[in-house]
Write a structure and sequence with these properties.
The chain is α/β, with parallel strands linked by helices. The chain folds into two domains: about 1-50; about 70-295, Chloramphenicol Acetyltransferase (2-Layer Sandwich). Helices cover about 35% and strands about 25% of the residues. It has eight helices and 13 strands. It has helices at about 10-20, 25-35, 40-50, 70-85, 95-115, 120-130, 180-195, 270-290, and strands spanning about 1-5, 10, 40, 85-95, 140, 145-150, 155, 160, 165, 170, 210, 230-245, 250-265. A six-stranded mixed sheet has the order 4-13-12-11-7-10. A hairpin with a 5-residue loop joins strand 1 and strand 2 (about 10). Helix 1 (about 10-20) packs parallel to helix 3 and helix 6 (about 120-130) packs across helix 7 (about 180-195). The protein is elongated and about 100 Å long. It starts with a strand and ends in a 9-residue tail after the last helix.
């Protein structure tokens, strides 16, 4: 290649790299001289580039908000799950009027005796645990080749950390708990999460998860699956709406407490009909179960 006044040869690729990257030829030559080089290659030019580009990092643009470490970890995990899992979403509309009859009767004494609120979520969780008994492939882990149903329902509950990240603590053997037991377990886990006291064990081993945005009035949410789990249930706002009610006298429209429950599932693990049958069973349990018998330990 051509030589500089210092007698240092520059290969054609080296000259092209200098031009394309806007480097200072004198800095490149100084770098070569300091290393005792008589010929500069493209790699030598790139090695010299950091010396040329040593300016201070640009300040964040006005209004830019750097992500916290937990937000970054959450983002990385969710992005990976979204890229690698073929998500499908299904939803059913459910009448919560019967649930509310029991909840409204017990919520005040429950709060007074335990310190925890009796929300709709433990009712939904209890119904999900009952429904999963007949659909074990939903309560499972999948590694891309093998589906491993779990003997117990280790229920993950998504907890928002004041809009600064998301954690999913796990309630072990949730199928053994009543609505009251689930409400207490959820209350304890949520308190630990928001006071940064969760342990690694609290966050591991989940086999099925529920996320709840109902307090914000959402109609339905399509959540991202928490791998290696194969499904996640979303609970949204439960509101009084006009609905068709069937009685012995016929059909009529009446105000009912209605809500939508949706499920994202991994289509590699099972098909839509299996998920739909599970949601149908979940709806049946919520609407017809005798909840008055389920509010005790």
């Amino acid at each position: 290649g051509a030589r500089t006044q210092d007698g240092i040869a520059l290969s054609p690729l080296a000259r092209r790299t200098i031009a394309q990257n806007g480097l200072n030829l004198d800095d490149v030559i100084a770098h070569a001289r300091s290393r005792g080089l008589r010929r500069v290659s493209e790699d030598d030019v790139r090695a010299a580039a950091p010396q040329e580009r040593s300016a201070e990092p640009a300040a964040p643009a006005a209004g830019a908000v750097p992500l916290s470490s937990i937000r970054q970890k959450t983002a990385e995990r969710l992005a990976e799950n979204w890229r690698t899992i073929p998500h499908v979403f299904q939803a059913v509309e459910i009448d919560f009027t019967g649930v509310e009859a029991s909840r409204s009767k017990h919520k005040d004494p429950f709060k007074a005796s335990t310190g925890f609120a009796l929300t709709y979520l433990p009712f939904i969780a209890r119904a999900a645990c009952l429904a999963l008994k007949a659909f074990p492939n939903i309560n499972a882990h999948f590694d891309g080749k093998t589906l491993r149903p779990s003997a117990g329902v280790h229920l993950g509950i998504a907890v928002d950390l004041n809009h600064n990240g998301l954690v999913v603590p796990v309630i072990r053997d949730a199928e053994d708990l009543t609505v009251a037991g689930l409400a207490k377990a959820m209350g304890r886990m949520i308190a630990k999460a928001r006071s940064a006291k969760l342990t690694a064990d609290d966050l591991s081993g989940g086999t099925y998860s529920i996320t709840n945005n109902g307090a914000f009035g959402t109609l339905f949410t399509s959540p991202i699956i928490n791998a290696p789990q194969v499904a996640i249930l979303s609970a949204d706002a439960i509101r009084m709406r006009p609905a068709v009610v069937e009685t012995a006298e016929g059909q009529f429209i009446a105000p009912r407490l209605m809500g939508v429950l949706g499920q994202s599932f991994d289509h590699r693990a099972f098909d839509g009909a299996y998920s739909a049958a599970f949601l149908s069973r979940l709806k049946q349990i919520i609407e017809s179960h005798d909840w008055s018998t389920d509010l005790s330990e």
